[in-house]
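Our collaborator T.R. sent over the components below with a one-line note: 'Predict the complex.' Nothing else. No constraints on interfaces, no templates requested, no preferences about which chain binds where. So this is a plain run: every listed entity goes in together, and whatever single assembly comes back becomes the starting point for the next discussion.
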Amino acid sequence: MSGPVTRRQFMTRAGLAAGGLVVAPSVLAACGGSDSKSSGSGSSEGKGDAQVWFDNWTLYIDKPDDELYGKGGTLDEFQKATGLKIKYTEGINDNGELFAKIQPLLSKGQPIGPNIIAPTFWMAGRLITLGWVEKLPLDKVPNAKNLITSLQKPPSDPTGEYSLPWQAGIAGIAYNQEITGRELRTVQDLWDPAFKGKIGMLTEMRDTIGLIAMSEGIDLDKPTFDKFQPAFDKLDKEVKNGQIRQFTGNDYVDDLEQGNYAACIGWSGDVVQLSKSNPNIKFVVPESGGTLWFDTMVIPNEASNVDDVAKWMDFVYDPVNAARITASVQYISPVQGVQDELRKMGGDAAELADSQLLFPDASTLANLQSWGNLDKEQEQLFDEEFAKISGT
Amino acid sequence: MARRATADDRGLRKSKWAPYGFLSPGIIWLVLFFLVPVGILLKASLSTKPSRFEEPVFDWNFSNFSTAFGDYGTEFVRSFVFAGIATLLAILIGYPLAYWIATRGGRWKNFLIGLVVVPFFTSYLIRTIAWTSILQDDGPVVALYRLLPWVGADGRILATPMAVIGGLTYNFMSFMILPIYVSLEKIDFRLTEAAADLGSTPWGAFRKVVFPLSLPGVFAGSLLVFIPAAGDYLNNRYLGSPQTSMIGTVVQNKFLVQFDYPQAAALSIVLMVIITAMVLVYSRFLGTEGLAV
Amino acid sequence: MSDANSSEAPPVAGDPVVRLEQVTKRFGDYVAVEEADFGIASGEFFSMLGPSGCGKTTTLRMIAGFEQPTGGRIVLEGRDVSRTPPHKRDVNTVFQNYALFPHMNIFDNVAFGLRNRKTPKDVVRTRVMEILEVVRLPDMAERRPNQLSGGQQQRIALARALVNLPKALLLDEPLGALDLKLRQVMQIELKRIQREVGITFIFVTHDQEEALTMSDRIAVMTQGRVDQIGTPTEIYHRPATAFVAGFIGTANLLPVTVRSQQGDEVTVDSRAGGQFSVPAGGRTHQPGSDATLMVRPERLVPTGAPLHGGAPAGTIEATVTSLLFQGPVVRCGVRTSAGADLVAHLGPEDDPAQFSVGSPITMTWAYDGAYLVPEAISADQAGVTHMDDDETAALAAG
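Returned assembly:
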């Protein structure tokens, strides 16, 4: 694999590795009765003297030892600016695993340890629906006004009171022009018989089904299984006839580079990095539309120091701090004004400011859809059907 | 005399309990980490989830088992076929290697056996992913493969049953080699001289003497390869395709993505029962008890 | 049979079944066997005797085919088999550790060779049961080797080899693992079985008593060389080398120089003083050459005691150093004035009661009781050999 390991790359691999280990405790936790006292997400030790404990995905913030962007990262700056101590852990590998860990505690009204966690939007939506996260003290987060409009009040959090986006990205079509021999524009291009056995899908159900659904004329708002049936049928057909080779996580990047895939569904952030070393790798938001995904910050129930958490959220919604993070992680920032701040930083950071994939223009944005909330029954139907088709 | 006998008797009675004392750590371990989890699994497999994110309720719900057979028969069969072929390949490849090290290794024996174990120093996951690089469509291995007369110019290895079975064989090979090596090591190779002396060709001596005596190792190796291979999901995940999905994949998904613990538990139990049954039949067939030397 | 060694042996009945012609075996620089050259006659019980490392087992393994000679030829019934693999040679081996197949029952073990030769089933059954009768274990057919005692395993190993009616049966220290009593029983059994089946036995042992008891002829080996081949009597009474003299039984050795020879009577000077008359043993001894005078303990007596085999050959002045009562004999240790330790076995007719430790004694022997070994030894090799084995044998006899 070339280039730095991105957040999602790492998540897929570490998540799978941990998957085997996680099965047993989650069964025990799920079935073991009411005296289960399993540890919180991220780590078993307490918050210590830190007021804020943020449990996040791996490689998802600038670090003080980040060589490229200098000493004194966002975490240090926050502690300097507020006098608050922050504990930052990288305990999240996978949404399902996260859920399996926190479910036994939150379902019994017990604190999980960290007072901010970063589930992906749909998982945040699930937690919100289950009533397992606190309302955010938004009156103490004045910078929340900087949230970009496209992510305000998303279907996963219709009132916008429970979650604030952390970073966002686009799922679209990634392809290797050396193999396709032409530019791709639509999802239909993926079903070109010339690419038989060289098309990849993501194991992330919402991105794969979302793109196919949009290409079949189905919008992602108010999703129901019946409404999406044609998308599943289409996917099933292309799996059975051998058009689709495999369902992968972030390793699609390797498959693209190594010629296993002609094209696949992929994420913008990866391709930004990959295309630097291999200009044949292209990313396109299909004409029928791409999906916009984002990870969120939420406060789990029974969390302490909620006001201090608010200070942290306010801090990272300051465009100056947000830009420092973006320059390091290279995803779409949910904070307005980051583009200007990157330009001010100059150098490599300024280059990022001009990327369509980090700062999509209005027409690109208009072509992106976010998933509406799936209620738990519907979600179960989606997950089951997707698992059956994808064999994952 | 009579008094002595009583004293001996008492000594005997006391010592009758001693073995259980020595066994107790093992028994406690077995109960805590095997029987209790299996019990929990069994309970979960007969439960129903009222809704997706609620805890399962035990209600003798046998439908989980009918679903396990009804909906996932293909995956079960595929798992056992793949694991069976992988076990066979591991014997075919591992046996000669173990034999060579045991008979020709000389003072390098320990070093060579060490080499067999070396892959374990790298994570199983990383090793599996490494194969995706080696077998990539643009790579030299596939280029050579495509030269075979029955393989077309667009032939591939990844995302085929061949890759999954190959991955299983590779990943569990050491578990085959080590027990075979140990059983071969124990064989007195003067027995092959005796066989030669009695008119056996080298192959005949191997077939009639060495191989039967190494069967306990082959048996142990087969179990150590077949059992984890039948429940594996990583090889399919990285080297396979939707057409090669195995039962481990389904269980993993049911647990971690769908939170369908009852169904996952039922699938696990069915897998466990089938494997146990196969092991019993296999051991009866091989008759390992009589092979103890 | 024209070489120097075998020329000493009397002609044996029948043609040689196995002939070794100048057979040499080297492992790297190490010479395990050097120019072994002898034949073994049909129906003979032939032993190769020597201390460990003398090359006897290597020689046997070359006959079996497990090793190939570095030089020379091995001829089996007139056919050169030097390069023939073991499974194509018509000889069978009884291994030191028996090497029974642990995964097969006794019947299958014994039938192994016959089945390799595609013998019909009913013939296999008959022959296996016959041979089990011969080794007197007919009821063990269904047992596993590990259910048998050491002696029983030994008999099965024998049966497994004999059932094939080999041209020669090779036995590699087959009795070494058995305890003394069982070993003696098996020695008799082996002789009985050999007579019964009439097959040539080639027997490797380091136990001289075993070799003497059982063999028609013995090849005594040391350091890769065959020192002497002959019947047990020949080897015992007329050893070709000092080593043979010492290795077979107990011998009192005295370094001497040949003074003169007249007919079969040789006059020698003891290097410790004194002059003796010795039979020449059919050889011509050069005056002035060094040789070794050998007297067996049972022939060494105090002066005055009855002599068998001629006039006293000379006398040696000595002091009694030990007197051990051993039942039939008293083992009397004496030290000569030259400092050599000698041993005499005194019978009742020698009146051992008259001696005590420290008392002076004059030793003598009959003219025929000594033998002149045509090989020199140094002064510090003078005296009795093989003390340890002698004691062991004495214990065994008691």
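Summary for T.R.: Chain C has two domains: 4-237, 250-397.
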